[in-house]
User: Which sequence fits this backbone?
């Protein structure tokens, strides 16, 4: 009799839901949830900072959003926050609706990433010209208006040793109202200091902001002694081709881990459904 009771109690506590899978999904998403929250926080801080400084933030075209680093942070942070929250809560509360939403979102991200990767790998030159055509003017135009973007461009030009974006290279800066050769400013015909090969003065350690003045009027040969003359998009593409295996490895790792998480979520869903059918029987 005692043995029979014991058996019933074990059967009563048995569950199809693997706590290992459940808490793995929960922990993974909890980390991403915090990360999403952090991105939103940083984004709002940057947005508020800029709003205080300039008093207006333009959001008229898609480019205004894409080139506004604070908005990009807020939007991507919100997406990560919502999706990982669904994953967290879905796993913890064993809610199949939330888990379905979660795995659908992950699948969607996965397909989008694959699409971008395929376009990038198969048509690198087309992607190159698309980026050049759609972003050169916008980025060059807004250089001085958006301090975040300005810092980002300066950083990119220094890191990748390039100047401007398109094949025109340093001459792209003629499209900016401050660096335009017919502009009334002192910087006319110049380029930002981040284009300069030696922007920092060795003796004083200070950045020579004037090192790129008047370069656009010079020939490529003369200019290339002072500044990097090639456009950034081409340079980045060449860099990506050189480090192709490394980039492909990271992309593959990310893709496989996403598929693993989708598989885990689907497994948990199946286990929860089994458990429910067991209860209802």
Assistant:
């Amino acid at each position: 009799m005692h043995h029979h009771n014991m058996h019933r109690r074990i059967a009563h506590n048995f569950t199809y839901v693997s706590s290992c899978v459940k808490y793995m999904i929960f922990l993974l998403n909890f980390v991403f949830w915090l990360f999403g929250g952090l991105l939103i926080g940083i984004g709002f801080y940057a947005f508020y900072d800029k709003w205080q400084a300039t008093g207006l933030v333009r959001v008229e075209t898609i480019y205004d959003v894409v080139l506004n680093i604070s908005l990009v942070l807020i939007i991507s942070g919100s997406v990560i926050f919502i999706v990982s929250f669904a994953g967290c809560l879905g796993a913890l509360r064993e809610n199949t609706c939330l888990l379905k939403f979660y795995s659908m979102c992950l699948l969607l991200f996965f397909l989008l990433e694959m699409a971008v990767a395929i376009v990038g790998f198969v048509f690198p030159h087309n992607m190159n010209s698309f980026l050049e055509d759609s972003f050169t003017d916008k980025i060059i135009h807004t250089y001085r208006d958006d301090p975040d973007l300005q810092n980002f461009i300066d950083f990119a030009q220094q890191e990748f040793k390039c100047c401007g974006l398109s094949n025109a290279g340093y001459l792209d800066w003629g499209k900016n109202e401050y660096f335009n050769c017919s502009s009334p400013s002192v910087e006319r015909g110049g380029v930002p200091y981040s284009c300069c090969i030696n922007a920092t003065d060795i003796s004083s350690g200070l950045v020579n902001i004037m090192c790129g003045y008047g370069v656009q009027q010079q020939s490529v040969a003369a200019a290339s002694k002072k500044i990097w003359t090639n456009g950034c998009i081409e340079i980045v593409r060449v860099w990506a081709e050189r480090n192709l295996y490394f980039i492909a490895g990271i992309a593959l790792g990310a893709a496989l881990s996403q598929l693993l998480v989708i598989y885990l979520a689907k497994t948990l869903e199946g286990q929860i459904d089994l458990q429910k059918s067991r209860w209802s029987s």
User: Anything to note?
Assistant: The radius of gyration is 27 Å. The mean pLDDT is 88. The longest helix spans residues 244-280.
